[in-house]
């Protein structure tokens, strides 16, 4: 295992973290009698395997169903000083936030957590709620004074400007955010975090980073000699501003491909450069070089588009579905639109008004093409609506 200093926390963070939202029994906060023995045994074996390979950062959340409760059966049996434990609690009025934190601690059966995130600062309004007098941050400061929380951060699925606004407060020691090869839009926020000496934790690089545990054959072939997951790992870890990637392990063997990737870390600049050039060439051959260079220009944020159609996200998904056969990933994300509130905002293209869309994207060099692309994307990716698994919202 490799370790990196997690910003001003001074923690030596493994470059992979054991994310806790895939191995639990239920997405509801089920009582213990609803937990099957086989599931609990698998969870405990996964934690033991995580520690065996040097991944001592265990990350979960109040919103991850039975995850905290099940972890509470194994974490207290392990040497506490060797663990880095993180949980996350959604922003709420101070009293509710504190009550939710107490539930987390009761479930985890720990006296303190090393890292506590305000879970889902996705809008400026949620940031203001977090910072208000008597709000979550004030409560966390008291918990820190009592020794029950070591470091405070925030997790976010929000737009880059909200992430940067949150970072600029100077109140947080670290950030959990999205950034990986298929979505690099938050890079400027990572740079801002580095300037503040914050830890940087990458959320879901394998799932939301492209459903890379089940890649289409075209993507797999283009990433050789690495797997798509290993390529994405190394792409992220080449940036020293990035400290750790969350691995949402569901079983003990899920760590192996990532551990193998570390064997290529010294050769990563060459490998990643070659694969990235190959991927970009393949996309340009299908979509055109000018499109690849300029498709994002002139597309407003979803909230500025009639019907709140998330044009940027839909076009992004269409790009990867058409050029790299990433259709199943596209479906997984597309069908969340309209069903995930501020976690994945905006609507799909089902009810779009072509005339209004044309007006909204008039600043795009491809304005006349975008309504047709949205229609094709809807036909290609639309399926039954998908709800977020996490109950954090």
Salient structural properties:
393 residues; alpha/beta; TIM Barrel; 2 domains; eight-stranded parallel β-barrel; two-stranded antiparallel ribbon; 16 helices; 10 strands; globular
SSE topology:
Elements: E1 3-5, E2 12-14, E3 16-19, H1 37-52, E4 57-59, H2 67-71, E5 84-89, H3 94-108, E6 113-119, H4 124-131, H5 136-145, E7 149-155, H6 160-168, E8 174-177, H7 187-195, E9 199-202, H8 217-222, H9 228-237, E10 244-247, H10 256-262, H11 268-287, H12 289-294, H13 311-324, H14 327-334, H15 354-360, H16 370-381
Parallel strand pairs: 3-4, 3-10, 4-5, 5-6, 6-7, 7-8, 8-9, 9-10
Antiparallel strand pairs: 1-2
Helix pairs in contact: 3-5, 6-7, 9-10, 11-13, 13-14, 13-16
What is the helix content?
40-55%
Which regions contain 5 or more consecutive residues with pLDDT less than 50?
Answer: none
User: H/E element string?
Assistant: EEEHEHEHEHHEHEHEHHEHHHHHHH
H/I helix tally = 16
Count of domains: 2
Architecture per CATH nomenclature, i.e. the level-2 architecture of the largest domain = Alpha-Beta Barrel
CATH T-level topology of the largest domain: TIM Barrel
Radius of gyration: 21 Å
Strand order of the largest sheet: 3-4-5-6-7-8-9-10
Structural class by sheet pairing and helices:
alpha/beta
CATH class of the largest domain: Alpha Beta
From the spread of the alpha carbons, the general shape counts as globular
| Average residue pLDDT | 94
Distance between the termini: 34 Å
> What fraction of the residues are assigned to beta strands by DSSP?
5-15%
Q: Could you state the CATH homologous superfamily of the largest domain?
A: NADP-dependent oxidoreductase domain
Q: How would you characterize the largest beta sheet?
A: 8 strands, parallel, barrel
